[in-house]
TrEMBL record:
Lineage of the organism: Bacteria, Bacillati, Actinomycetota, Actinomycetes, Pseudonocardiales
PANTHER family: METALLO-BETA-LACTAMASE FAMILY PROTEIN (AFU_ORTHOLOGUE AFUA_5G12770)
Name of the featured protein: MBL fold metallo-hydrolase
Metallo-beta-lactamase domain location: 139-215
Gene3D superfamilies: Ribonuclease Z/Hydroxyacylglutathione hydrolase-like (3.60.15.10)
Gene source species: Actinomycetospora aurantiaca
Top-level lineage group: Bacteria
A Pfam entry, by short name: Lactamase_B
Amino acid sequence: MPLSPWTCTNCGHWQRWFAVPPACPVCTDVRNALPDDGWDFRPLDEIARGREARWAEVRPGITGFWCEPQVGLGTSGWVIETDDGLVGWEGAGFYPDEGLAEIRRRGGLIALAASHVHGYGALFQLQDALDPPVMAIGVRDLEWTKTFRVTWPLDDRHEFAPGLVAHRTGGHFDGHMVLHDERRRVLFCGDMLKAALDDEGRATGLSAHKAYHAQIPLSHQEIRDAYKIIGSLDFDAVATPFEFVEGVTTAHVLALYDRLLSAQPVAGPIPLAELS
């Protein structure tokens, strides 16, 4: 029987399996919560029914793609314009045909990558449909990549195009990467940051965590390691696997890290007003 894609309805992680998967490796990891009522996996053709593609430009040259209704935790996939072509970062939970056609219409992808497994979404769809020459994942996170084929394992730094550079922070996952768009001053921060938002989507607080659901903070050494990387990057907006947040700056993040290093670290949000 050929392997086919199945998604976990609890978290949205995709697996290729020869039958209904026995468990979800992302949910059984300490960083995620287990489903309350047991496993529920759905095949690709079932997920495709009734879902529509959505995309929106959040800054000139940066477009977020997602689907409605969302899948799992509701991730977005970012498509970033560069002088060399389009780079995909993170993955939507599912890509309806219209979304794939839109990326193809724009010229396809020269590279596809993600911060860590919580942002993978349906990267396998983009690889299957668009066949980008580069699929890049941090080499220390290869154990999570069984659904797609990594063609370029990343070490600590990788330049996808002039002004678009990935850096390994570790921390949330050992191979966790962030992506810095130097020209647009945007940090694609993965899960090394989480913004608390008000009803209008404005940031009211910032946090950093090893495990959000379990509220496990980063260790002091993990924070110091991230500090060295993020402190050298200039940005005034961040993009997580879930949302784009204006007004979060390098100074805010370093103030958060300073606070977490000053005492026992916490995983909950610090008010942004206290980090200004």
